[in-house]
């Protein structure tokens, strides 16, 4: 195999996941509610994976104990919450803000591991966390402040829609962190394909139920809208994450984990090129500060390398799950 192939596959995966925010924006522009986008995205992904999982992994499903099924359900609910909140954030804030803030999940994993698993973060993890928080504050203020003119008091007491979007993105990061922590336990006894099939399926069921409860329709939209939803399932959900997991067989987990922090940068670049959404200088500064903080914490603790798979399965080490 060519020594450059893993890097090419990783690059393809990174580009694939970076299209997610754009496809969400296109679907929202065609009138699809955010909750419906999340529900259809996970449903299509599950339907695509199910035939492979049922054909090759029936024994894995049969061997799952009742406790594992409960964990799968809980994991799926939090994954559904992640997509519902992150996709909703794109209604209120910029793609740059949303993708940077939702990428902070490794920091939430470190906090959860400290509080629940009694695994205290080291000093460098705390340093990364504080740097990322500082960058998040800069991002939160970026819509009412500028490097040239300072902050407008009227903006600080405005409708707060961008701040609400930023908060939704952070909620999505916290939710996917819980999903990853639970996945750390599940993946000790469950292969990757059946694991993601079950968790995607549980997330899809929870989101479809939420659509029914809230009266959110997930049918009746234009065909172009369903094209965006299908592309969401194929590119960022399946091709993107599959590429990451393949690359992990041939590249160090830390390298892959840090490389995936390029997603917010690529997403922002695509948003600027395709829909003309250029981040302000302050957004760029805040985003870079957040990514530096995440990178420091990730390298110091190996968070992403721990959360989703056991060491005996090299394909699972450092497996990532993001927007």
Characteristic terms for this protein:
two-stranded antiparallel sheet; globular; mainly alpha; 16 helices; 323 residues
Structural write-up:
The protein is mostly helical and 323 residues long. The protein has one domain (5-306). It contains 16 helices and 2 strands. It has helices at 5-18, 20-29, 34-56, 58-63, 66-89, 95-102, 105-115, 123-141, 153-156, 161-186, 192-214, 223-247, 253-259, 263-275, 281-301, 303-306; strands at 145-146, 150-151. Strands 1-2 form a two-stranded antiparallel ribbon. Strand 1 (145-146) and strand 2 (150-151) form a beta hairpin.
Shape: globular
The proportion of strand residues reads under 5%
Sheet with the most strands, sense and barrel status: 2 strands, antiparallel
Rg estimate, integer Å: 19 Å
* Amino- and carboxy-terminal Cα gap: 30 Å
Give, in order, the helices and strands. HHHHHHHHEEHHHHHHHH
- Overall average residue pLDDT: 82
Helix content: over 70%
Assembly type of the chains comes to: single chain
- Contiguous low-pLDDT stretches (5 residues minimum) are 153-159, 303-319
Which SSEs are present, and which pair or pack?
Layout: H1 5-18, H2 20-29, H3 34-56, H4 58-63, H5 66-89, H6 95-102, H7 105-115, H8 123-141, E1 145-146, E2 150-151, H9 153-156, H10 161-186, H11 192-214, H12 223-247, H13 253-259, H14 263-275, H15 281-301, H16 303-306
Antiparallel strand pairs: 1-2
Helix pairs in contact: 1-12, 1-14, 2-12, 3-5, 3-11, 3-12, 5-10, 5-11, 6-10, 6-14, 6-15, 7-10, 8-15
